Predict the 3D structure of the following.
Amino acid sequence: MLKKITAFLLIILAIYLSYSALMPSKISGLDAPKNSFSTERALVHLKAISKKPHYIGSPEHENVRNYIVKSLNDLGLETEIQDEYSFTDWGTITKPKNILARIKGSDNSKALLLLTHYDSNPHSSFGASDAGSGVVTILEGLRAFLSENKQPKNDIIILITDAEELGLNGADTFVNKHPWAKDVGLALNFEARGSGGPSYMLIETNGGNQNLVNEFVKANPDYPVANSLAYSIYKMLPNDTDLTRFREDGDIDGFNFAFIDDHYDYHTALDNYDRLDRNTLEHQGTYLMPLLHHFSNANLNNLKSDADDVYFNVPLFKTISYPFSWILPMLILAILIFIALVFYGINKRTLDSKHMAAAFLPGIAAVLINGLVGYFGWKALLAIYPQYGEILHGFPYNGHLYIWAFALFSTGVCMWLYNKVYKPENTASLVVPPLFLWLVICGVIAFKLKGASFFIIPVYFGLISLFVLVRQKHPNIILMALLLFPALMILSPFIKMFPVGLGLKMLIATTLLVSLIFSLCISVFGFSRYKNRWAYALFLASLGFFITAHFQSGFNEERPKPNSLVYILDSDNDSAIWGTYDTILDYWTKTYLTDSPDTSDNIKKTTFGSKYDTGFTFSKKANIKPLDQPYIDKQKDTIIDNVRNIKLFISPQRYVNRLEFFADSTNQFLSFNINGLDVQKAKGENSVFKKRKSNRLFGFYVADDNHLELEFTTPASQKTEIMLYEASFDMLENDMFNVTKRPQTMIPKPFVLNDAVIIKKKITIE
């Protein structure tokens, strides 16, 4: 009994280590050595730059930029501001102001780029994590690096971009217009998509990752969290960072370092100084310092590769990698060993064919039951708690409790099912079907998702367990538990990573992974005759987490409800409405939308540019306010060779932040120039805006110039109608509206045009 308890505790220890080894458990203080990174010193900067939202065009935006410039100057660096218009494939045009500095190296070699952005997301985010954490990581890392007074071999370029949140505009202007871009050999980008948790390393490259992985291993960061599965999945997703522009436009390789936990804080008013996890900021520092020392002196000309590596992190051994060319040999070898062990066990009569066949049933049943529970789990939660739908991230404040609940429930299902086939001394036979299933999975992975091929490593240790079980009917249970360490330490973090990173719609990944990991643990749990008791205990624990989550399902000051409200004046028909993106109205929005809002207003057909293409849900007729309408002047309208040449001058007559332009997809634009910047045609197309997903043409975010000069050409016979939406983010401050401030239990909904005063105006050219 003591050995079984010890084995169980070892399994708990392995799972604990798999998480605790991902990031530092304490932070460095103000008394840290001058040449080392100090989180406390970095926090001094963070407090200064995250006092208010500082999106492009806001008053605080300039204050934050000036603070960063002064901080770089205080380090003895000469700075410059790159200031040019940019139009990106996100359909946004603005004039970002990039902050640049350069440390001269001793050789005429490729430069190392330190990269992050300083703008916060419009309009309520304080930008402490995204990406104030990146700014202060670089500032503090540079201070520590320069304190040694050693000249690096490579130049070090510091680029703190602007307008990343709007469409990677700052990165676009640097890569495509700044002469330093041609000098860059490697970029290190520090980002955030939440306010805590470990920082994941993700590679950006157009080629193979092998040389990049090898150099990363040589740099030897203390807490690497990196695996080629995340790398493979990241390449499939439509997520972008500044490094995307470097890779796509400049063929410049780089490393992203981004933390993703507490995802509900992302782009919200909760992204503030107090909520940033201090250990997470320390983790960013543990990446920067060794990589800065290594790559500032490494040969950055030899990072390109045609080959890829499989790589993963594991406690104690940090990052392990091997070439893709090993994937098939390792798979084939594992299959041969498996077949040999099965025949060997049958010949020794320690494996029984009937018991092996019966053992397939609980494994398949566990995958099916838990898969269905995971697939419908989030849908069921949304049906029971529709308020979760107001959190567009797809990860509610109590999301971690649900991960625990579903993981424990899935484990209980596995315990209950495998107890049905329990017989004394049949554990060896129970181990065979899970290994067979894992080999099938690894076979599929080898051809469809090569980045996950490190899943074969736990299989090899499973084969060792099978060998021991075939040789011994009563093996040392502690040894069997130790053989589970690789599987538990490599695979356990994925149980949490998928739903945290992709939202609770990925609970199916949690439940399936639990089922598959548990199947490898049969070499230990197969000896227990009390799996039913374990199952009931796990079900009870799962219920406890569900109950706890229920009591935390509402909104309060710690878990505020995201909501939205805009005012839209239609200047063409002299009418106005209140609008919202919310599906559940609260007492704050009902003040304007009432208990019986309208659901059929035309504004529902208009979707402004946003992360999730979120549309309006309700509206209500509003009083017309005497807003100053935009001045629109047609300065040119000529026809030459059956092509109409038009020039419009648009000048808002009030303070505005954003202008959105729409035109029916039947409208054809042969060319388009915005404030002197040509909109590029897609390859093979004879007109611009040809491949737009909706009627939206572009959004203009006001920085310095609050006017627009549009020059475009159309077919001469075309009647062109452009719909302009002119928006300011000042609804709550505008005395004309007297909208009360939100209570402490509510925050502005992110990812949408919110708290805005909007004027709608049609521009017709016929």
About this structure: The longest strand covers residues 631-640.
